[in-house]
Write a structure and sequence with these properties.
Layout lengths: L1 H28 L4 H6 L5 H11 L5 H13 L13 H36 L4 H15 L2 H15 L16 H7 L1 H27 L2 H8 L4 H12 L1 H17 L2 H6 L5 H10 L3 H29 L8
Helix pairs in contact: 1-15, 5-6, 5-9, 5-12, 6-9, 7-9, 9-11, 9-12, 12-15, 14-15
């Protein structure tokens, strides 16, 4: 088991290296740079060249890349090219909003989705199963901006329950105040992750239910609820945990549309602003941060799968 974990850690390190190269090359493909954005279109070539030299953008690409990797590994995340503010300060001002909303969404959405998926697997082919399946497939098919617009129309304009725009952060707020203040983003994110979690939980449990030992338990008269909760669910936990990890990673790094739609000041909107201002340092740091979170969550999911399923410890 330890060799498998170490192998996955090694794969994660290689993945981070590959992602760092992709992010670095991707930022350089963007038209324009921070010097041109800050000086404006009327800046002369002499001024642009001098400013690029001041920002370090005149160095060869490979020199910039290895310098960035070296500084990052030493803990120096650099300075924003757009505002001359340390990148750590920019992230410190935003990460709480993304982290709190993601945590509240996970606390509400993940258990509820798994429970709905298990209930659907308990009554396959019934009315409840068909309704839940129809709703989950509909949510998977609906774009994020459409769900967000629908929620705004219902809760902000029709019921006037909350504001359509999220203003302010989480400082000084209780859990209930955070829940109401960020009600629409949390609701939208819960609907997005629930669509996948419900379907995967139902499919994983039903797949285990077709196993010979489960069929034997059914023939012996063991109640279906007991079979699912005591036997099938533990054997189906592997794919369920993997989907949960993917959705948690999405909550941290993939909420760009939701944050921008609700004018919500989080890490995703900070990255969008970095792209707009060609702030290479900020984009690279946030990109690697999102990649690191994704790899850690997937590693936790793999370990959970190995621990819960002894067959994975001895692959053929």
């Amino acid at each position: 088991m330890w060799s498998m974990i170490l192998r996955r850690i090694g794969i994660g390190i290689v993945t981070m290296f590959a992602v760092s190269v992709i992010i670095f090359c991707g930022t350089r493909i963007l038209p324009g740079d921070a010097a041109q954005i800050r000086l404006g279109q009327e800046a002369t070539e002499t001024n642009l060249a001098a400013f690029r030299k001041e920002l370090g953008l005149d160095r060869p690409a490979h020199v910039q890349y290895f310098s960035w990797v070296k500084d990052t590994l030493s803990g120096d995340l650099g300075v924003s090219l757009a505002s001359d503010v340390p990148v750590t300060d920019l992230i410190r001002d935003r990460y709480k909003n993304t982290l709190y909303v993601s945590a509240v969404t996970a606390v509400i959405g993940v258990p509820l989705s798994v429970l709905l998926g298990i209930l659907a697997a308990m009554f396959p082919g019934g009315i409840y199963d068909r309704v839940v399946t129809f709703i989950s497939v509909t949510l998977v098919s609906a774009p994020e901006f459409f769900l967000a617009t629908l929620l705004v129309l219902i809760f902000a304009f029709y019921f006037n329950f909350t504001s359509a725009v999220v203003v302010g952060g989480v400082e000084g707020k209780t859990f209930l105040e955070i829940l109401r203040h960020f009600f629409l983003p949390i609701m939208a994110l819960c609907m997005i992750i629930a669509a996948q979690l419900i379907r995967m939980t139902r499919a994983a449990v039903l797949n285990v239910m077709s196993s010979p030992y489960v069929e034997m338990a059914i023939l012996k008269g063991v109640p279906r609820k007991r079979i699912i909760m005591r036997h099938a669910l533990f054997n189906a936990i592997g794919p369920i945990v993997n989907v949960i990890a993917l959705n948690l990673a999405y909550l941290i790094s993939g909420v760009v549309i939701i944050e921008v739609f609700f004018a919500y000041s989080g890490l995703a909107t900070l990255m969008v602003q970095g792209v707009q201002t060609r702030d290479y340092n900020l984009i690279q740091v946030l990109g690697m941060l999102f990649c690191c979170v994704y790899i850690i969550l997937m590693l936790i999911a793999d370990i959970a799968s190995i621990v819960s399923n002894p067959r994975l410890r001895h692959p053929r």
